[in-house]
Amino acid sequence: MGHPIFLDLDGLIGVGYIHESLYKGVNMDWGMANRLAQLIQSDGKCLFMPIDHGYFQGPTRKLEQPGKTVEPLLPYSDAIFVTRGVLRAAIDPRNTKPIILRVSGGTSMAGEDLSNEGLTTSMEEAVRLNVSAVGISIFVGTHYEKESLLNLAKLVDEGERYGIPVMAVTAVGRELEKRDARYLSLCSRIAAELGARVVKTYWCENFERVVQGCPVPVVMAGGPQVNTEREVFDFVHDGMQRGAIGVNLGRNIWQNDHPVAMIKALRAIIHENATPEQAQKIFDGAKRGEKVGSKG
Ligand code: 5RP
After folding, report:
1. 200 is catalytic
2. Which of 83, 147, 206, 252 could form a disulfide bond with 181, CB atoms 3.0-4.6 angstroms apart?
3. Which helix (H) or strand (E) holds 17?
4. Cβ(221) to ligand 1 under 6 A?
């Protein structure tokens, strides 16, 4: 993995990675480099679309029929994050984007403790499904911290053997108030230390602290739907300025009444360096049916 470079962005001290360093890192085999290149686009940025929520939430609102939800969004997604069950049932193998396979689970909203996850899918199955990466949650600071971290370490051992990158998800379960820079930088660094190739964490104030402490690329999750589109554009833009390489963002796209307009606007922030104001215009225009916005 390459070294971070420091950027002066509108007065912010951000941190970013030289894109090439993702692929020219020490000990990165062709398969690993190729899969990362499928996920992280040639500009070094990415928009991943998660539709894995059902693995512990059941039929989440607007994801009752995941195939229908994701179909119009696929052209604007760089990858989708999904379990093997929904992948087989709802995603056309002839018309898809790179797959990040959710391989942790075993708990539900109705159970006692969301942090008590295990590995749900083997690496052999990931290879059979021809995925570009696997994703697993870790639960730092919980009763099951150790199990989730050892699950990650084991998955990394297997992923490295087959050239499949592991994306670690710094999960907070129901405790959304945990999402601050101190906690998320702790989780993200631990995930990287255990070998994750990409870390998915939440945006927070002072997000550069999370990125600077994490020696692998960081993508932002969205969390529950917020009140306005503008809030999403603001935090995604802020996180990108502070060093995130992109998003893994679901509910704030597909629970919106205008999901295609939403993903076009977010794509513009991520891949075209649009400001939140420009993103809002793209959203408003796309909502009205105008032919504006981001490239698919
Ligand atoms: C669920 C996940 C989701 O992929 C993640 O939460 C991102 O989705 P959203 O933007 O809806 O929060 O990991 O555990």
Report:
1. yes
2. 206
3. strand 12-17
4. yes
